[in-house]
Structures are given as structure tokens and as C-alpha cells.
Amino acid sequence: MPAYKVKEIYYTLQGEGAHTGRAAVFCRFTGCNLWTGREEDRHKAICQFCDTDFWGTDGLNGGHYPTAASLAEKVISLWPADTAGKPYVVCTGGEPMLQMDDDLVEAFHEQGIEVAIETNGTIAVLDSIDWICVSPKAGSTLVQLHGNELKLVYPQAGAEPHLYEALDFEHFYLQPMDSPQQAENIAATVEYCKSNPKWRLSVQTHKLVGIP
Question: Are 204 and 16 in contact (CB under 8 A)?
């Protein structure tokens, strides 16, 4: 049985949050505990606004990686050689904590890679991960109550920003929900951040400039 099922792995720039603009290899794991990833199941998902394809293993460099070392080797192979920047991987999904383990983080570290995770926070994150970004979803139970960055898609009924302000995070970001009402969502997010300066605006810049 394969150890890690991966939808896609690619080199790009981080488009959101505190590390916006930073070069990164994205490692997108298959599977999520809030939605199957199948469109026919979206109506009954806990998170119905997800805009990411994490179903299957058919994406760029996707597949079944039998060992932590094999996955780490694939990630480091996509990082430009002879560069001054520290290799950086963003583990995402879906929900990466369904598959990530200490062996994988150790394998990344052995390759000199700094490890970040983007998680819905319903599964406790490994202490060995270098950067923790939690994106809470309404209707789920948040168990990861500390980290580097809390990035909340806004608006979400039942996941209002004030519910998270006392948590132990360095950065608090509001990100307008990408939907047919996006213009209204952007305006509402801007106004909320202006009225509540604890929160900063996060925009999906990768979509604006046309990169993955």
C-alpha cells in the first residue's frame, strides 16, 4: 500500500497570507475530511466553498509515493539548483494532516527543506513542522489552537472572526471567499479589517497573476 497519495507537486510562488510572493514547492495531498472532492458530494460537504481539486493522483507529479524519502526527493528536485533561497515546501490539500507524519517532515528536513502546512485545523499538527497556517471551516471542530498564521475565509456563517481572536497565532488574516459574490465579499472583508485592525487582508494573488 502506498504511503503517500499526492494529487500534484509544482514549483510556484505562494499566493496568500504571510508568505505571499515567496517561492515555494506546493505538495498537494489527496483527500480531505470535510469533503470528498467529488462535485456530486459538494452539497453535503462540511466545507462547500472549496475551490481546489484534490481528488485522485493525476496532477503534475502526482502519484503514489511509497516512502517519505521518495516524496522528499521529488520535492527537492523541483527547487532551482544553486540558489541562495532556502528550499520551502507548502504541504496542502485537501487536508494534509490525514497523511503527513514525522517521517515525512524528517525527510524534508534532511533535504534542507523548510516545511509549511496549510490545514483546516481539525487534526493536531506535528510539532516538527516549521510554519503552521490554519484555515478554520464553519461546521468543523478546531483542535489546532496555535500556530504561525490563522487565515479565515470570509464571510462564513458560524465562523465569525471574533471566535478566533483569542487563539495563539502570530498573524490573523481574512481572505474574501471566492464565489459569485466575490466583489461583495472583498468589500465586506476590507471593511471588517478596517474596523478590526487585528485582522489583515489576504488576497489570492496567484489567481490575479495567473500562476498555479
Answer: yes
